[in-house]
Write a structure and sequence with these properties.
The complex is a heterodimer.
Chain A (H helix, E strand, L loop, with lengths): L5 H18 L3 H11 L2 H9 L4 H10 L3 H14 L4 H21 L3 H18 L5 H17 L3 H15 L4 H14 L4 H14 L4 H13 L8
Chain B lengths: L3 H9 L3 E2 L4 E2 L4 E6 L5 E6 L3 E6 L5 E6 L5 E6 L5 E6 L3 E6 L4 E7 L8 E6 L5 E6 L3 E6 L7 E4 L5 E6 L5 E6 L3 E6 L4 E7 L5 E6 L5 E6 L4 E5 L5 E4 L6 E6 L5 E6 L4 E5 L4 E6 L6 E6 L5 E6 L3 E6 L7 H19 L5 H6 L4 H7 L7 H11 L5 E6 L2 E8 L12 H5 L4 H10 L1 E8 L7 E8 L7 H17 L5 E7 L12 H9 L9 H17 L2 E9 L11 H11 L1 E8 L8 H6 L2 E8 L2 E4 L1
Parallel strand pairs in B: 33-34, 33-35, 35-36, 36-37
Antiparallel strand pairs in B: 1-29, 2-29, 3-4, 4-5, 5-6, 7-8, 8-9, 9-10, 11-12, 12-13, 13-14, 15-16, 16-17, 17-18, 19-20, 20-21, 21-22, 23-24, 24-25, 25-26, 27-28, 28-29, 30-31, 31-32, 37-38
Helix pairs in contact in B: 5-8, 10-11
The chains are: A mainly alpha, B alpha+beta.
């Protein structure tokens, strides 16, 4: 037993699971298993059989199949149902993915049109959408910035997302901050600033929190002669 | 003949704030310097003891433990321990290096009795604190025995102080008395009574000759310990909260609820300067151990540090300095006295330091700024009778021809190799023009991009570049203005003042870039200027992706108009050395340079 290569075994198990899921027509699950096994192409083929356009497009972009990615993003845009909330939320992401695909497929004019539409919607809806949705949209802009090598958009997207999540969605804020830090690791001063922010935003231990609360309660400055 | 007190007053008139005020989250009650002069420590209503490195405005650290306001602070003579008293009735002893407390003493067992003034004996064997119950508590630093209780006061004790030889302890409080205690015998030695004068602060002079105390009746009293004679220092318009002697016992500083900090000449009893700036009651004042700085803490939530270095000059040195300054001023007024000297007087880093307090800038900006100054050519303008001269740190031979008005910014656009050659050879090239003197009809507008796209290094670099541009273009005979271009466009300001530069550096734009409205406003400003200036130049300091988007605005027309109205050039900031400026940016700015920063090194090409 000691000679078994556990990684090889795990990969093989994921492969088998993927095939079983496919036989049962569970293509999303099959794609997830293929991804876990490290087979992106099979994962894409499985996803193409589903209606999960977002993940299919993202994977196609990752695999460098830009034309197909643009096609998927266009399909996604067509399929978005006219529900006010979901529509706007999905449309911004679909447009940004389309813009990425077109940009990388060297169709700059069409890419810019899609991007302009997405930015227009982002600024229009940023005050109407709930913070979580709004934050995700700004993160999508940052992801676009990463793909098309626009560091200004990476900074703008993440900064807006962090401000949108705010203290009320602190866990989301911390998650986004970690991703932001990863993306701007080369920027020394920005990384330092972000690490300082992370230290401020990290949830304090419950005991410490309780002590803080007690301090607040007792501090009435009774003996303050001023 | 100038009298010594006049010289002192003249010197005091030149006291300047050191850096920007240190902002706290709550009112600040006490402030003190560490004996080695390294730290400035403050205590605040926010229950924290804040530690600042002297010379910075960045909080070095804070120490928490008190549950109510921190009233008073005192360092042990060796500087290793800090004592703090609080409204929660405790005195904390902090290890200043480890930033943690190692001993807590309480004034009470059942009900909370706030502790006010605290002091360390010079021999480091006792520390004492005044309490709200009118008892001075004296603890031994070497044993943990209960405190000695020195009873005599009838009411709260706000301040305590040890004499420099450690033999006596003075305490003052709400019962209008100052009591002097014999530390060895733990008994009362003397009582100074002044009815109607509640004592807020008491201190011995470092030479041990004087005892001073401040009171609620706006006066400060100085008692000569040798003969008991006392003098009154009057001038404050309100209750005096705190006093401190300078290390040489020559000066006394006081802070009061008339929002002023005042400096007094101890020998003559004259007020020599009022230091203004605080917006609320001044609660505490302190001298640094070398006497070159003073600090004041206030209810306006700031601690201000004052630079007293000039006050410490000997009178004869000071008079020599003044004479030198007067001579330089005369040359400035009439450059023909010494034209060469005048020509050399460009805004060098040294000169800029006079305009902007460089030590108060964020460290990132300062380090980038000094790098940038070595990379941008030095340009000088001199306005002589009948002629004008421009000079550039340059190379042999006149290779640049063209209108003088066009010269300044063009110099910044030479290829890197040429610039390096000029800088290495330290050569100067003078552009002269004889004939009728030209009027100040040129304006240069520096436009810095702001907004969330400019976070981190890009932001620091943009601000440092702006400062470098101000330094290099600020003395060229024309007018210099500065604007921000971000979510909105800020109207042009004159950047050659400390306030403007501070404002410039602290600006934070919390929105993204908006192209349409700022462009239109800029165009309108240029149109107005067109009527009063015959030459308008703009220098843009922007991210290289500036204007890469064409969102929802028809910019082409406005940009064309701006092209027609001004000569504009750009410095593109990039963090990627291999990235060229995008076509959109090149379309907008035909003349541009790339400023690339990688691994903390800046290159221009």
């Amino acid at each position: 037993m000691e000679n078994i290569d556990h990684n090889l075994l795990k990969t093989e198990l994921w492969r088998r699971a993927a095939r079983h899921f496919a036989q049962a027509d569970l293509h999303s699950e099959s794609a997830a298993a293929w991804l876990a096994a490290g087979h992106n192409d099979e994962a894409i083929n499985a996803l193409l059989k589903t209606d999960d356009r977002a993940q299919t497009t993202a994977l196609l972009l990752k695999a460098g199949r830009y034309k197909e990615a643009a096609e998927q993003a266009r399909l996604w845009l067509k399929e978005i149902k006219p529900e006010p909330k979901r529509q706007s939320e999905e449309k911004i992401r679909a447009l940004l993915l389309l813009a990425t695909a077109l940009h990388l497929d060297l169709q700059p004019d069409q890419a810019l049109t899609a991007y302009d539409n997405a930015r227009e919607k982002l600024s229009q809806l940023s005050k109407e959408l709930p913070p979580l949705t709004n934050g995700k949209n700004w993160e999508a802009l940052a992801a676009y910035g990463v793909m098309v090598k626009r560091p200004d958009l990476v900074r703008l997207g993440y900064e807006k997302a962090l401000a949108t999540y705010g203290q009320t969605l602190n866990l989301q804020r911390l998650r986004a901050l970690e991703e932001y830090l990863e993306k701007v690791a080369d920027d020394f001063y920005l990384s330092q600033e972000l690490k300082e922010r992370r230290a401020d935003w990290q949830p304090k231990s419950t005991l410490k929190k309780e002590r803080e609360r007690l301090w607040e309660a007792v501090a009435e400055f009774e003996g303050d002669p001023r | 003949m100038t009298s010594l007190s006049t010289i002192l007053s003249e010197q005091a008139a030149q006291i300047t704030p050191q850096g920007t005020p240190v902002l706290h989250s709550e009112r600040v009650y006490c402030v003190t310097f560490s004996p080695d002069g390294r730290y400035l420590v403050s205590g605040s209503v926010n229950r924290q003891v804040n530690v600042w490195e002297v010379g910075t405005t960045e909080l070095s650290d804070y120490m928490r433990g008190h549950t109510k306001f921190v009233w008073s602070l005192a360092f042990s003579p060796d500087g290793k321990t800090l004592a703090s008293t609080s409204g929660d009735g405790t005195v904390f002893l902090w290890d200043i290096e480890k930033r943690c407390h190692f001993r807590i003493e309480e004034s009470h067992y059942a009900i909370v009795l706030p502790l006010y003034g605290v002091a360390y004996s010079p021999q480091n064997d006792y520390f004492a604190a005044g309490c709200a119950d009118g008892i001075v508590r004296l603890w031994s630093t070497t044993s943990k025995r209960p405190p000695w209780k020195l009873k005599g006061h009838k009411s709260e004790i706000y301040s305590v102080a040890f004499s420099p030889d450690g033999r006596f302890l003075a305490s003052g409080g709400n019962d209008s008395t100052v009591r002097i205690w014999n530390v060895a015998d733990k008994c009362e030695e003397e009582v100074l009574t002044r009815p109607g004068c509640r004592v807020t602060s008491v201190t011995f002079s470092p030479d041990g000759c004087l005892l001073a105390y401040a009171s609620t009746n706006t006066h400060i009293y100085i008692v000569n310990l040798a003969d008991g004679e006392s003098r009154i220092l009057s001038g404050h318009q309100g209750l005096v909260w705190s006093i401190a002697f300078s290390p040489d016992s020559r000066l006394l500083i006081s802070g009061a609820n008339d929002r002023s900090v005042r400096l007094w000449d101890v020998e003559s009893g004259q007020q020599i300067q009022i230091l203004e700036g605080h917006q609320d009651d001044v609660n505490s004042v302190a001298f640094s151990p070398d006497g070159l700085l003073a600090a004041s803490a206030s209810d306006d939530r700031t601690v201000r540090v004052w630079n007293l270095s000039l006050l410490n000059e000997r009178p004869e040195t000071y008079l020599r300095l003044v004479a030198k300054q007067k001579k330089e001023a005369a040359i400035d007024k009439n450059p023909d006295i010494c034209p060469k000297k005048h020509l050399d007087k460009s805004l060098d880093p040294d000169h800029l330091a006079e305009i902007i307090p460089l030590d108060s800038l964020p460290q990132a900006v300062t380090s980038l700024y000094s790098q940038l100054l070595t990379m941008t050519p030095k340009l000088t303008f001199a306005d002589h009778r009948g002629s004008q001269t421009y000079s550039c740190g340059g190379y042999h031979g006149l290779t640049h021809k063209g209108g003088l008005d066009n010269l300044a910014l063009s110099e910044h656009l030479y290829p890197e190799a040429l610039l390096q050659h000029r800088i290495l050879n330290r050569e100067a090239l003078y552009y002269g023009r004889e004939g009728e003197r030209e009027k100040r009809r040129r304006v240069t507008l520096i436009i810095t991009q702001s907004g969330l796209e400019m976070s981190g290094t890009t932001n620091h670099l943009a601000k440092a570049l702006t400062l470098a541009a101000i330094a290099r273009l600020g003395n060229l005979g024309g007018d210099l203005r500065h604007s921000f271009f971000g979510s909105s466009w800020t109207p042009p300001t004159d950047p050659l003042s400390p306030e403007s530069c501070q404002k410039l550096l602290s600006r934070q734009d919390n929105e993204g870039l908006n192209l349409k409205q700022p462009f239109a406003l800029l165009r309108d400003q240029l149109r107005i200027w067109q009527e009063s200036y015959h030459q308008i130049e703009t220098l843009w300091i922007i991210d290289r992706h500036f204007a890469a988007d064409r969102r929802s605005c028809n910019l082409k027309k406005i940009i064309q108009e701006i092209h027609n109205l001004s000569q504009h050039r750009a410095w593109f900031i990039s963090l990627n050395p291999n990235a060229a400026a995008p076509p959109s940016a090149k379309d907008l700015f035909h003349q541009h340079r790339q400023i690339v920063m990688q691994n903390n090194r800046i290159t221009m090409f």
